[in-house]
Design goal:
It is a single chain. The protein has 314 residues and is of the alpha/beta class. It has a single domain, classed as Inosine-uridine Nucleoside N-ribohydrolase, Chain A. The protein has twelve helices and nine strands.
Length: 314
């Protein structure tokens, strides 16, 4: 499977990259970086640091826009540390940055790699610009797995929202106009939102964390350090590896359970900015909204086992 990872590293994006690069049967053909957890140029540096840590082959890494489409970059209420990687102070990367603008690299990769799967773990600015410039790539892209949205399927959706408004999620609220463009584009899209990755089953067990710490693999020990970083700050261990769930779902779609829903994104109200508005009514439903698959549950034990097995593998 050919994967393009559109990300904003960030600790959980870093673990998603680790899982993608190390997974048998997956080939990461490109990495594109968006402004989200950090500005795009800093995310581009962090992505290259992680590829160095993995001793990954040459993979094009491109930088996207420094700002969302129509609004300033929101301050991250979570914080991934001074370097965006939990203060692990990985050395600067000598890898070259691909000279193409990230949306252009997405277009080129979609044309060059039929049935390309995109794993989007960042605000959707890059993908929105790509499908706006080259709408025909919608038919070339096999599927998009997106970490984003708050769909209201369970209590976790309201208790653990990550956006800057009460019912929003970070990757959507940073660039809600981009999310709206992508949802309306016709792309085959599966969103994995707050409803899923804040559930207790996402948290690494003590035994799993110990396995990461004891591994001789640098990437496994870095993942353990990320989990320790978030836990010291009062967050669940899941915060360190949220984005990896999208990679796992792309490789094994049966890991997640989804509803098909009508959805749109609020872009105006200061109370609900970035909220993913879901239409599931039996009567009087709006039929004009774009439809996507939105996850409501996952096989968490199987996912965590895959993550630990892959990160500790030689």
């Amino acid at each position: 499977m050919n994967l393009l990872i559109d990300c904003d590293p960030g600790m959980d994006d870093a673990i998603a990259l680790m899982l993608a690069v190390k997974s048998p049967g997956a080939t990461v053909v490109a990495v594109t970086c968006s402004t989200g957890n950090l500005p795009a140029d800093e995310c581009t540096q962090n992505a290259r640091k992680i590829l160095d840590l993995l001793k990954a082959p040459d993979i094009p890494v491109a930088c996207g826009a420094q700002q969302p489409l129509l609004r300033p970059h929101a301050a991250d209420p979570f914080s991934h540390g001074p370097d965006g990687l939990g203060g692990t102070a990985l050395p600067p990367s000598p890898r070259p940055i691909d000279p193409r603008f990230a949306p252009d690299l997405i277009i080129d990769m979609a044309i060059a790699n039929p049935q390309l799967t995109i794993v989007a773990t960042a605000p959707l600015t890059n993908l929105a610009l790509a499908v706006t410039k080259a709408p025909h790539i919608v038919q070339l892209i096999e599927h998009v797995y997106f970490i984003g949205g708050n769909f209201g399927f369970n209590e976790y959706a309201q208790l653990y929202g990550t956006g800057t408004t009460p019912l929003s999620e970070w990757n959507v609220v940073v660039d809600p106009e981009a999310a709206r463009i992508v949802f309306r584009s016709g792309l085959r899209l599966t969103a994995i939102g707050v409803d899923v990755w804040t559930q207790p089953g996402m948290n690494l067990t003590d035994a799993e964390l110990a396995a990461l710490r004891a591994s001789p693999r640098s990437e496994a020990r870095a993942a353990a350090a990320f989990a320790d970083f978030v836990e010291r700050r009062g967050y669940g261990r899941y915060c360190a590896h949220i984005d990896a769930l999208a990679v796992a779902a792309a490789l094994d779609p049966a890991l997640i359970r989804c509803h098909r829903v009508g959805v749109d994104v609020e872009t105006v109200s200061p109370l609900t900015l970035g909220m993913t508005i879901v239409e599931r009514r039996v009567h009087h439903a709006w039929n004009h909204l774009p439809t996507i698959h939105a996850a409501y549950d996952a096989e968490f034990d199987r996912y965590r086992a895959r993550l630990i097995r892959t990160l500790t593998a030689e």
